[in-house]
Amino acid sequence: MFNFEEELKKLPKEPGVYIMRDDKDVILYVGKAVNLHNRVRSYFREKIGRGPVIDKMVSLIARFEYIVTDSELEALVLENNLIKENSPKYNTLLKDDKTYPYIKVTVGEEYPRILFSRTMKKDKSRYYGPYTSAAAVKDTIELLNRLYHLRTCSRSLPRDTGLERPCLNYHIHQCFAPCQGYVTKEDYRRQVEGALEFLNGNYNPILRDLEGKMKTAAQELDFETAARYRDLYQSVKSVSQKQKITDSGGEDKDVIALYQDDREAVVQVFFVRDGRLIGREHYYMTNVSENDGPGILENFVKQFYAGTPFIPRELMLQHEIEDRELIEKWLTQRKGGRVYLRVPRIGSKEKLVELAAQNARHILEQNRERLKREEGRTIGAVKEIARLLGLPDIERMEAFDISNSNGFENVGSMIVFEKGKPKPSDYRKFRIKTVSGPDDYACMREVLTRRFSHGLEERRQMQEKNLETEYGSFTRFPDLLMMDGGRGQVNIALSVLEELNLQIPVCGMVKDDNHRTRGLYYHNVELPIDTHSEGFQLITRIQDEAHRFAIEYHRSLRNKAQVKSVLDDIPGVGPVRRKALMRHFKSIDEIKAASVEELMEVPELNRRAAEGIRNFFQEKDKRENTPPQESGTK
């Protein structure tokens, strides 16, 4: 038994992190302290105006633990790591866990490339960003490769120069083919420098160059080339106009402000890079009811910048935060250069912070109605189904379906909905092992038996290892099992559960003659349901999702079988060439229709192999189209 009085006396008067746990050993709250002795003891004093939420948390504390650190800065870092890893219920949490795209230029290579990246590493490459739109980053990379004819391949140059034929980009005049030595390193570098100028925001030389080439081509009546330059000109102009100048300082900074209500807060961030506003993003913060604006802002800064790979030189904040100097020191260490946290009071910078706050308020107000509708579609719909079935509460629902083609490749699907939303990470596929032929009941029995037997085994292993958290993907059982069908499917499920000594409610999603859901079969009774209700819409989504998941798995197995049966019969085509053919042509029909020259565009094929594939399909067509000859005597 945890003795609070004794443990409180043992608390050291040193900096560190404290962890509050409930009677199930679940972490309720993680905090840092300059003095653990004073800070932790303060939670257990009565009538100090902590507020109802903190009082509720304290009433749930079964024990606490602490970790002593050498400094308050170390405590800050450890606190962030523990909050991110455990997501405690009573900490103010950053809901979004996004990674932002960067443009990466591999200037450390002899023939650099421009790549899309989600991480910024300490290597010899140059990074631009972060950007808020992955699509915009990909468009920009494509535009730069078209403008400057840079390579997109992953070949190691100059080591692999001349080892393989140039790719399609060379033939359509979008790459200078350094892989063949067709361009000098110096000339290629000049192209890369042009791309870097573009990324640094210097668009005017490019626009002038493209405009000149467009006019020259038009004067020479080469209208196709002129049109190509015109399109590139418009693309560059469009990109350049999207870059809004926010100040003339040309510095990197993030502008951060928030708006909150009694349930959550929205933090708006403007990303300013080289003096240009390149994008904005908003983030939701939860558990904010007893936190003021500065407290929420401090929690956001600590959690967000603990995970982002890029830290700007300046953070412009809406409010002063309590640990400003400590957080500045921490961010400076992470960045490897001085970082400032400032609260602008006058001028254009203050107006920019106000604009971010206005955006945050607009987003929160705009989303209230959407969140209300979303809650009706999900949690509200689940409650409606629970009321219809007379169940106290439903959180997790699992649905199963079987798919086959006349008994070929029998497969089963398991899909999971939690709180009315699909949870794809818990979806599972089953390839039927014991049933041959189209017997859906037998297939369903196998799938359910495997699913719940596996779950029971995982639970047994959890007990043996004294684990508190889920051991495997099948450990958690559903609050409701939903079968695609009526009495027959429900009875199969009930018999499997009875054999395994499990008590789980089972209902069937009954369809009418037009294959549309009409009600739920539960306890030997078909319960009608309002077809205009949110509960009915959720049932339909679950049924459609289970069917889609099973069909897609069955189709993938069928396609693999077809590919294997055809391509494996071609002399000279092994696993490597088979994969290369399917990667290049996408379907058997495209391979059959391809000419020898088109087949030779696959790097793994030489002329002899291409001719062999072409001859194989021609002979195959002749055999299939030749009518059988009559035999016997007249």
Give the secondary structure arrangement, pairings included.
Blueprint: H1 4-9, E1 16-21, E2 27-33, H2 36-42, H3 52-60, E3 63-68, H4 72-86, E4 93-94, E5 102-105, E6 114-117, E7 126-128, H5 134-148, H6 168-171, H7 185-199, H8 204-219, H9 223-242, E8 244-245, E9 253-260, E10 264-273, E11 276-286, H10 293-307, E12 314-317, H11 324-335, E13 340-342, H12 347-389, E14 396-405, E15 408-418, E16 421-422, E17 428-431, H13 440-465, E18 480-483, H14 487-499, E19 506-511, E20 517-522, E21 525-528, H15 534-567, H16 575-585, H17 588-593, H18 596-599, H19 607-625
Parallel strand pairs: 9-12, 12-13, 14-18, 18-19
Antiparallel strand pairs: 1-2, 1-3, 4-11, 5-6, 5-7, 8-11, 9-10, 10-11, 14-15, 15-16, 15-17, 19-20, 20-21
List keywords for this structure.
634 residues, alpha+beta, Nucleotidyltransferase, domain 5, 5 domains, 8-stranded mixed sheet, 7-stranded mixed sheet, globular, disordered C terminus
Q: What is the CATH architecture descriptor of the largest domain?
A: 2-Layer Sandwich
| Mean of pLDDT | 83
Our Rg estimate from Cα atoms comes to 32 Å
Number of strands: 21
> Domains counted in the coordinates: how many?
5
- Total helices: the number is 19
The end-to-end distance, rounded to whole angstroms, is 102 Å
Query: Percent range for helical residues?
Result: 40-55%
Determine the strand fraction and express it as a percent band. 15-25%
Main beta sheet, described? Answer: 8 strands, mixed
Given helix and strand content, the structural type is: alpha+beta
At the fourth level of CATH, the homologous superfamily of the largest domain is: UvrC, RNAse H endonuclease domain
Named CATH topology of the largest domain: Nucleotidyltransferase, domain 5
Q: Unreliable segments (pLDDT under 50, ≥5 consecutive)?
A: 243-248, 628-634
CATH class categorisation of the largest domain: Alpha Beta
User: Looking at the structure, what is the overall shape?
Assistant: globular
